[in-house]
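Posted in: Structural Biology > Protein-Ligand Complexes

Title: Requesting predicted complex, zinc ion in pocket

I'd be grateful if someone could produce the 3D structure tokens for the following input. Sequence and ligand are given below.
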Amino acid sequence: MNLSGRCLCGQVTIELTEVHPQVTACHCSMCQKFHGGPFLALAACSRDQITFTGESLIQRYNSSNWAQRGLCRQCGSSLFYYAQETAEFFFATGLFQELTEAVFTEEIYTKDQPLFYHFAERTRRWPELPSS
Ligand SMILES: [Zn+2]
Ligand SMILES: [Zn+2]
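-- Reply #1 --
Done. Output follows.
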């Protein structure tokens, strides 16, 4: 699917081409803090699928030795998780409007999920990362 997204202030826009429609929720403690709740993430995107405007406003935070988190300097919107080793971006679904084709299929780090909510969709749930 091709998608257009933007941060809250609109200074950062994101165009994506040919994104796989699978959506994953990550319940890990870092995602909970960065996104203020579970991270509903699009499938991995490589740099050549992405067109940013306002890229100079994107602040990257090194949240671990293997990943960065991207946010808008202007409005604070949480934008993406970036995996350094594979150079893949995982964007937050909330930035995008036309997600009619998206399917929510996986939940990861369910061992860290707070007890007060559960999603109703039938998903594959992994205590940590999917075993491959
Ligand atoms: Zn913004
Ligand atoms: Zn996470």
